[in-house]
Structures are given as C-alpha cells and as structure tokens.
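The following record pairs a protein chain with its ligand, nickel (II) ion.
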Amino acid sequence: MDERRAAASPPLEAALAIEGATLVDPELGVVEDALLLADPARILWVGARSQAPAWRLRPAGERVGARGRFLMPGMVNAHSHAAMTLMRGYADDLSLMPWLETRIFPVEARLRPEDTYWGALLAAVEMLEAGVTAFADMYFFMEETARAVVEAGGRAVLARGMVEPGDGSGERALAEAEALFRDWHGAAGGRIRVMLGPHGVYTTTRAFLGRVAERAAALGARVHIHLSENDDENRRSQATYGKSPAEVCAETGLFQVGCLAAHCVKVSPRDIELLAEHRVGVAHNPVSNLKLASGIAPVVEMRRAGVTVGLGTDGAASTNRLEMFEEMRLASVLQKVRLDDASALPAREAFAMATLESARALGWADEIGSLEAGKACDAVLVDPARSPALWPHFDPFSALVYSAEPAAVEAVWVAGRKVVEDGRVRTVDVERLRHEVTRRAAFLTREEG
Ligand code: NI
C-alpha cells in the first residue's frame, strides 16, 4: 500500500549517490555493491544496491562510482590537542611529567592565538586526509581551533583546557570556557560542539572540579578530562586526596554531567566500576601511551564492564602522527599481547572503537560514527589500489584495521561536502599552511640565550 502511494508521488531526489563500494560499517557490517544516497548533508538511504527503493529515491546530483573501494564512516578521534602539531617531534623520548614540565609547558607559554589557528588547521588537514572527520580537542584559544575546523570543513567538539594551580586562575579559564560554549556550541551547521575541559585531577583542585561540574550542569555541557594516564598521576592523586583520580571525579560531580575521560591507562577494578556506573566515555590513545611509556590500558576489561571505549590520537607532540589506522591496529594487537590471547579485541571491535564507540564517547552518536540513514553524511572512500599493503584483501574489517594506511584514503565527505578528493584536502591552501607552521614552530621552540 505504502509502495503504491509513494509511486504516485515523485521520488525524492538524492543530491549525492555513492555507488558500488563495499560498505564497511560498525552497525551495518559488510555490504557488497552498496548504494548510499544523501541529501547531501544527511544520509537518506544506504544498503545493497539490489535492494534500493527506486520508487522512493533516485540519484539526481553527484554520482560517485566506487567499485572496488571500501566505503566507511569518517573516523572519530576521541582525544587530541590539535594545535600541538606545532611541537611535533620537538620533545621525543621523555616520560610524561618531564615531557610536560620541562619541554611542553615552556613552549605553550609562548603560544599566541594565531599559532593555535595554524597548528589546528594543520591537524584538521592531516586528519581529514587520513579519513578522520571529527575530533574531540582540548587546548587554549579554542575559538581559533573552531575557525580552523570550520575552514577545513571538518567537525570537532572543543574544550578550552583549564588548569587551577590553586591561585584562582582557573576561574578566568572557566569564564572563557563558558563564553566558548555560548559562542560556538552548535555552530557551523552543528559541526562544532563545545565541552568544558578541566585538564586533569593532578593539574586542578578538587574545589575547582566541583565548580566545573556545577557550571557544566547549568549549561548542559559535557566535560573532557585526562584521567589516570600513568602511575605518577595516580600517586599524586593518592598523596593529595587518598583517592584515585576516578574517585575524585565521581565525588566532585564531574562524572555525573556526561564525561569524556582520556587515557584511563591505570584504572583499578573499582575505577572501572565507577566509569561504567556513570557512563563515562573513555578515549584510548595507544600510540601516546606507548611513546610516553605510560602503559597499556585495560581496554578489554573496561569494555566487558560496559564502558564505552573510543580511540584517540592525543596531541602530535606525543603521537607525532594524527591518524587512526595505526591507533586501531595497535589497540587490537596490544590487548592480544597484554592478555596473551590472540583473539582479544578482534578487528571488527577495533574498527567500532575508531568510529561508533568514539562517537558515543563524545555524546555525538546521534549524528556520526556510522553510516546509518538519518545520520550525517560523514563518509570515507578507501581505495585499496592506492596502497600495496592492501593487496590482496579478504575480510574488510581486517584489511582496514591491520593493513590500511592514510595513503589509501581517496575521498572524504563531511556533512555531504567533499573535502578530500584524490587523497588531498581541497578546502585549504596547503602550501601556505606548510610555510606558516614551519615558521611558527621555529619561533615557539627557539632557545633563549
Ligand atoms: Ni591529552
């Protein structure tokens, strides 16, 4: 009946049609010879081309022939500090506290708003070309990062990082964070969201964390924090409060407002219970955790307890590369060696972490993280012909998690707009970008005489 009535009215026209790819999606699984129709910002229909409802919808705008390609949702980077691209390779081979305190903080003290803009623009370009369409970021001068993301054509949830050494300076940062929320939350057609970002339990006070929780609840904002990144951080928390960082967060109300917790490397079974109970989203950053010798997070145990665990890169100063193929691959193989079990965290689960689970951790799964009808058209076309590491391939989840690299990314759409074509971002003057970041990085890291 519905079919007859629909046939009487003219079919809906889809402004974008991607035809013939192998769809690889955390919810829909693998669909050969797929068709995706979008309006173009939103997905109207997706599935096997043979089952397309021709009576209801027809391609009428851009038609992309995608035979032989993988079509996957844009990856979601659940934890980053975009502008830290300016410090890429500047402070390697150090553990977390000396890395931060002797190398990173002095450079950050010199950082100007326009440096943040260029650093974040570089990060946005690098991520888009690697198939990462959205990221959660914590840093300073976040309106500059917002500008960069909008210009590059991506999507981000931004938090002004706040520290409170006990001198009241956190209040000023909190006022800026609230202004950022008012000015940018939901901006650029919903491509920008804003969270509050207390840096960590070890860089703030308990009273300040309570204040942030209170303001977040009043604004309806979520929070983004670093949590139990390594043993040293836990020791500091125990020495100050006699509690773990997770216990402090739960106590101050920070876990109750919708929390994204980065790292969670050194979490106890009790901490994991708290994360699950308060539906805290975790951002797992395997490369950064390895490079700073922080440890290997108990991802399997957290997932088993019902915790949503997404994947992130952390900043380029500790990770060097802002891409998620390597994070997926490492997330999986690290759990295997940690648990002495080669079946731990299989490819499909690692793929879900980089897409839908990250989106859930950000509180954004209503729009992104999978290619289901009704969601935003944030899609990535991976062409195995671009990368010998993908010859041959069998299971698509295995190919994308264990073999793929950014060089295989052919095209990227965000909200239906094609921002990467033939592997390159088309929205930004990349030569000028390279010149600006090189010049600014040299200025920021120059040694005082
Ligand atoms: Ni971080």
